[in-house]
Amino acid sequence: MVAPIGILDPTSLAIAGQLGDGSSIFDLSKSQFAGVLGGVNEGVQGFAAALFTERQLKQASVSALAQGRENARRLRRASRKRQGAFRAALGASNLALDGNTIDLFTDSAIEAELEALTAEWQAAVQAINFDNQRKQANIAKFNAIFSGINKSAAAIIGG
Q: Rounded to an integer, what distance in angstroms lies between the CA atom of residue 58 and that of residue 70?
């Protein structure tokens, strides 16, 4: 018959209760118990650090995408403004538009759009990199917990 968990005797720390004959399932010395607590604490601290890193990287990914969209919007606006200024200057000079001038406006607009799309693409690549790092931090959380469990088990086994 197993007694309730947490029964302690003054010379050792019994973790899992006592058997019917009075012997403990796990009798740990104080140094073993300190090793177990140290391993658990190390695992929890590693988990918390990795969780913090994971959250920072998630925010960095979101920020990178938002910044890319804003850069593209700014580039498109500047292009439209520049095109308007070109058209106004051309109209003020009373010059007639022929095929070459129209092609110049079209080429300029295409170049500006490509620049905006490149800004969005670069932001997406940066966000993907942050997401990959976030996934690595997620794995590190569980590695920290398992490392703590292993150190606790080693403290119990090693004495």
A: 19
Answer for the pair 123, 141: CB distance below 8 angstroms, yes or no. Answer: no
- Between 99-158 and 30-92, two packed helices, what is the crossing angle to 10 degrees? 180
pTM over 0.90: no
* d(C-alpha 112, C-alpha 74), whole Å: 11
pLDDT digits (tens, 9 = 90+) for 54-96: 999 999 999 999 999 999 999 999 999 988 888 788 778 877 6
| Number of other CB atoms surrounding residue 127 within 10 Å | 19
Q: How far apart are CA 86 and CA 107, in angstroms?
A: 13
Show Cβ contacts of residue 59 under 8 Å, excluding neighbours closer than 6 positions: none
Tokens of 96: 């007639």
Strand, coil or helix: 10? coil
The domain spans of the chain are 13-158
Cα Rg of the chain, angstroms:
33
